[in-house]
Design a protein that fits this description.
mainly beta; seven-stranded antiparallel β-sheet; 10 Kd Chaperonin, Protein Cpn10, Chain O; 17 strands; 0% helix; six-stranded antiparallel β-sheet
Length: 195
């Protein structure tokens, strides 16, 4: 039985890449895949009664920390539990509801996906590329690619934002790599001139 407020998920396809096969054929579990390969697209296998936001068979993207928990084992398969209702003041483990394994239908809670811009490189008038190694202490900029619409932070898809290095982790969505973070980890939104 699943605890109230929980849903059970399993990897969508063979996406939780935390096992490696050694040259002798032995399979070992690494416990944690590399973050940019953290295949965290999941299929809902059980939903607690009364939770109408999620449905059995729906595809989700879950936070990579879900994979660090010990799975439930049933009929030879592993399942992980995810909070369907996050604790007060937390964005929870569900990042997005997916149309398929590579396409976001909608973001959940205060999570967002950002495509980083490398602003350390500057091109001179003659075409020479200079790299600024004195970049402000690990503050990065990027373009918001996915976020919940009408959020209280006023952040929208397409906005240029800045954030600290410690507030992000890599996530792969199809062939694209994004940084995943919570909206309240964004330091500021860039306002274009003339706005």
């Amino acid at each position: 039985m699943t605890p109230q407020g929980k849903i059970l998920v399993k990897p969508y396809g063979n996406r939780y890449d935390n096992q490696k096969e050694l040259s002798n054929g032995t399979v070992i579990y690494t416990g944690m895949p590399s973050l940019n390969e953290a295949g965290n697209v999941s299929l809902i296998v059980e939903v607690v009664d009364g939770n109408d936001e999620y449905q059995k068979g729906q595809i989700l993207m879950v936070e990579y920390l879900v994979m660090l928990k010990k799975p439930y084992r049933f009929n030879g398969e592993n399942f992980w539990d995810v909070d369907s209702v996050p604790p007060e003041g937390d964005s929870g483990n569900i990042l997005a509801v997916m149309k398929d394994k590579d396409t976001v239908e909608r973001m959940v809670n205060d999570w967002c996906f950002i495509e980083e811009i490398d602003e350390r490189e500057k091109e001179t008038a003659t075409g020479l590329t200079l790299i600024d190694s004195e970049k402000e202490s690990k503050i990065y900029s990027g373009i918001v690619k996915h976020c919940r619409e009408n959020n209280e932070y006023g952040i929208s898809v397409g906005d240029k934002v800045s954030y600290r290095d410690i507030n992000r982790y890599e996530n792969k969505l199809g062939n694209e790599e994004y940084f995943t973070m919570q909206l309240d980890d964004i330091l500021y939104k860039h306002i274009p001139n003339g706005s």
